[in-house]
Amino acid sequence: MADSDDSTVDPKIWVACLACYNGGSLHGRWFDVGTDPDDLHHEVMAFFAKGCETCGEYERECPECRAFAAPFRCGGEELAVHDHEGLGDVGEAYDLPRLCAIAALVDEFEDRPVLAYLARVDEDVERAREGLREHYAGRWDNLAEWAESWAEDAGLGTEQLWPYVDWERYARDLELSGDVETLDVGGAVHVFRR
Ligand SMILES: [Zn+2]
Ligand SMILES: [Zn+2]
To answer: What is the residue extent of each domain of the chain?
Structure first.
């Protein structure tokens, strides 16, 4: 199941061997996604790969083993991401540079909506980083609350905000406070201000 925008979950992927999957068996496991794709790839290969003839086992430091397409113990050689958490809607591609870049972004901006930004604003990680860094204006209960604070900070005067005042609500409050009394007579409102 694809996960939601919940970036509080540590990023991880379930990596599957495609040959086994197509043959109807489960060959794979969960891996934590850190920020280094090279590290992660070798952790994955240490699980799947048969290793080369020189070392007999898969060794991270062995140049022969480091070849990307080293065959697996089961004979398969292709990988897919069949489940994931904490990374947004990343699909099934075994694209570790992108997955690790997303994990790094989540790590960098813990309190900001990284996955939602990637999903709804810009899926490009570098542009998302810029947007999250340069344009984030904080978390608010609603946009009106932010707008009020922003107008205050920007020192906007009454005249600039005049067109946006909710006069009906203001009038109702004046009336309720007792500062103003009204008499409806002849289709008009007669106002008395104390
Ligand atoms: Zn397999
Ligand atoms: Zn080797």
So the answer is: 12-134, 143-193
Does the model's pTM come out above 0.90? no
Regions of the chain where pLDDT drops below 70: 1-7, 67-70
- CA pseudo-torsion sign 120, 124, 125, 131: negative
Q: Note the pLDDT of residue 72.
A: 87
Burial of 45-65, coded b for 16+ CB within 10 Å and e otherwise, reads: bebbbbbbeeeeebbeebeeb
pLDDT tens for residues 69-98?
567 889 998 999 999 999 999 999 999 999
Name 16's bridge partners: 28, 80
Cα of 96 vs centre of ligand 2, distance in Å, is: 22
* Distance separating alpha carbons of residues 126 and 132, to the nearest angstrom: 10
Residue 146 CA to ligand 2 center (angstroms) comes to 58
CA of 143 to the centre of ligand 2 (A): 58
